[in-house]
Write a structure and sequence with these properties.
Number of strands: 10
Strand order of the largest sheet: 3-2-1-4-7-9-10
Largest sheet: 7 strands, mixed
Distance between the termini: 20 Å
Order of helices and strands: HHHHEHEHEHEEEHEEEEH
């Protein structure tokens, strides 16, 4: 959004054009460039969609200076309300779910969950955290480092030891990349496995997700739409010998490095958002309410 702010700042409307129409067409190449660098996330798509809508609503008789000021104000408000303040509200809701003596299991490294756990620790709640990690990204190591530096008691396991540790766990907290219209939660690959094991042990699963990540798309598997990582990452097992170093020479073998997976709503007990705690199936209702308010 700050990049688009710079684009708007450098833009000037031609004499024979209207800002509301010309600016929208001018930012399309930048959006295409972003897509070429990396597939557009749901949150990025929603932000761009809202910015385009704001541009098209600019009156044709408004001066460039005034129009740019309105767009700057919109971008600042979007970042502040949808991201920063939303995170604060979610944190306050989530802390109420943490009780003394809890063993909280988290997966990977979510900045929102880190904020929740650190603030819960600052409020003198006595709990322990189990950080679950998996290859190839091993993001849990960074999450573990930050929690330990904050003074929180932690245990660290890989995802293959999940069923061994789950009987000790009282709650599972997960972050989210997106919440789909059919109630499925798209998150870092492995999240679905964590939620499924938690369900089998009757451990509640709570997902923290801002509403700007809610999406009108429906998806029931991880193959219809996903982001692909570098397949070479799967060959790095942090050992001297790489067992799949020659995988490209094997015609019958393809390495698939999925970045995200989708978790069925049956495995998620509640979604904590800035508008309250809602079930996964409330996504269409929330989207309708948001479009009515913003429209």
């Amino acid at each position: 959004m700050n990049t688009f702010k710079r684009v708007i700042q450098d833009y000037s409307t031609p004499d024979d054009k209207e800002l509301s129409r010309d600016l929208e067409s001018r930012i399309k190449p930048y959006i295409s460039f972003l897509n070429q660098c990396r597939p557009k996330s749901v949150s990025m798509g929603n932000a761009i969609k809202n910015l385009k809508m704001q541009i098209t609503h600019i009156p044709s008789d408004m001066s460039d200076t005034k129009a740019k000021e309105e767009l700057y104000t919109f971008i600042d408000k979007y970042l502040n309300e949808k991201i920063f303040l939303a995170g604060e509200v979610i944190k306050n809701y989530a802390i109420t779910k943490i009780k003394d003596g809890d063993v909280i299991l988290v997966y990977g490294c979510s900045s929102l969950l880190r904020k929740v756990l650190c603030d819960a620790h600052n409020s003198d709640k006595k709990f322990r955290v189990v950080v679950v990690d998996s290859r190839p990204k091993m993001e849990g190591r960074e999450g573990l480092r930050r929690l330990v530096n904050h003074g929180i008691r932690c245990s660290y396991i890989l995802i293959n030891a999940l069923s061994y540790m789950m009987p000790e766990v009282t709650k599972v907290f997960l972050g989210a990349h997106a919440l789909l219209a059919n109630g499925y939660v798209m998150s870092r690959v492995g999240s679905s496995h964590v939620a499924m094991v938690a369900k089998s042990y009757n451990v509640p699963v709570l997902v923290c997700c801002e509403t700007y990540k809610f999406c009108e798309r429906a998806q029931t598997d991880s193959f219809v739409a996903n982001e692909l990582g570098d397949p070479e990452d799967l060959t790095n097992a942090e050992k001297p010998k790489k067992y799949l170093s020659d995988w490209r020479n094997i015609d019958s073998l393809t390495l698939l490095n999925l970045i995200y997976d989708v978790t069925p709503p049956d495995f998620v007990d509640i979604v904590i958002t800035e508008i309250g705690m809602v079930p996964c199936t409330s996504v269409p209702v929330v989207l309708r309410m948001k479009s009515a308010v913003e429209g």
